[in-house]
Write a structure and sequence with these properties.
The complex is a heterodimer of chains A (115) and B (112). Chain A has 115 residues and is mostly beta strands. Chain A has no helices and 12 strands. In chain A, the strands form 3 sheets. In chain A, strands 2, 5, 6, 10, 11 and 12 form a 6-stranded mixed beta sheet that branches. A 4-stranded antiparallel beta sheet of chain A has the order 3-9-8-7, with no helix packed on it. In chain A, strands 1-4 form a two-stranded antiparallel sheet. The radius of gyration of chain A is 14 Å and the shape is globular. Chain B is built from no helices and 11 strands. In chain B, the strands form 2 sheets. In chain B, strands 2, 4, 5, 6, 9, 10 and 11 form a 7-stranded mixed beta sheet that branches. Chain B has a 4-stranded antiparallel beta sheet with strand order 1-3-8-7, with no helix packed on it. In chain B, strand 9 and strand 10 form a beta hairpin. Classes of the chains: A mainly beta (115), B mainly beta (112). At the A-B interface, strand 5 and strand 6 of A face strand 4, strand 5, strand 9 and strand 10 of B.
Chain lengths: 115, 112
């Protein structure tokens, strides 16, 4: 079984400040981890992924995420938040080598960047 | 540019009616998925397909069916719509296991 927890339903941050959106996962074996963003009335858009290799992953729009195997976490970060970053963010996991494409999503975190 | 389109964007139907939601992708991906999005639940997988004539049940498949007659399309059918199926439905496709999903813009379905 695999699961994802996003412990914060909402994160508020001032424009220009660093932001963090938290994600922890549970999977038997090695994980493939993803972050997606959803703007109002749109589908999800891919931000970044961790498959293997460097624990710090860089993605679209200046976002990055750090894979921490010991803490089973994959937190999303950005050094300086923009108002346009306000959206719903989803973390997702799948077990590497699962032979199945059943990605498990977290419940989402609403990010509000305050001008 | 390749894309994935869903239709209709909005649908209102009555309890007990059969409803089909369309999904069409031009990525030429073998893997296609249907999710529903509900407040407090995130995205939950309904059905998925790894290729033509292949379909599989996901986490919340009861009351739904899909068919895959070609690479481009994976229509989702609600056999007898129920109020519990009021939701936003997203179709997605992908290339390989560790490739990102490409999502459509969703269909908002209301069952009255």
């Amino acid at each position: 079984a695999q699961s994802v927890a996003q412990p914060e339903d909402q994160v508020n941050v001032a424009e220009g400040n660093p932001l963090t959106v938290k994600c922890t996962y549970s999977v038997s074996g090695n994980p493939y981890l993803f972050w997606y963003v959803q703007y109002p009335n749109r589908g999800l858009q891919f931000l970044l992924k961790y498959i293997t290799g460097d624990n710090l992953v860089k993605g679209s729009y200046g976002f990055e995420a750090e894979f921490n195997k010991s803490q089973t976490s994959f937190h999303l970060k950005k050094p300086s938040a923009l108002v346009s970053d306000s959206a719903l963010y989803f973390c997702a996991v799948i077990r590497a080598g699962a032979g199945s494409y059943q990605l498990t999503f977290g419940k989402g975190t609403k990010l509000s960047v305050i001008p | 540019d390749a894309e994935i389109t869903q239709s209709p964007r909005h649908k209102i139907t009555e309890t007990g009616r059969q409803v089909t939601l369309a999904c069409h992708q031009t990525w030429n991906h073998n893997n296609m998925f249907w999710y529903r999005q509900d407040l407090g639940h995130g995205l939950r997988l309904i059905h998925y397909s790894y290729g033509v004539q292949d379909t599989n049940k996901g986490e919340v498949s009861d009351g739904y069916s899909v068919s895959r007659s070609n690479t481009e399309d994976l229509p989702l059918t609600l056999e007898s719509a129920a109020s519990s199926q009021t939701s936003v439905y997203f179709c997605a496709s992908s290339d390989t296991l560790n490739s990102p999903l490409h999502f459509g813009n969703g269909t908002r379905l209301t069952v009255t």
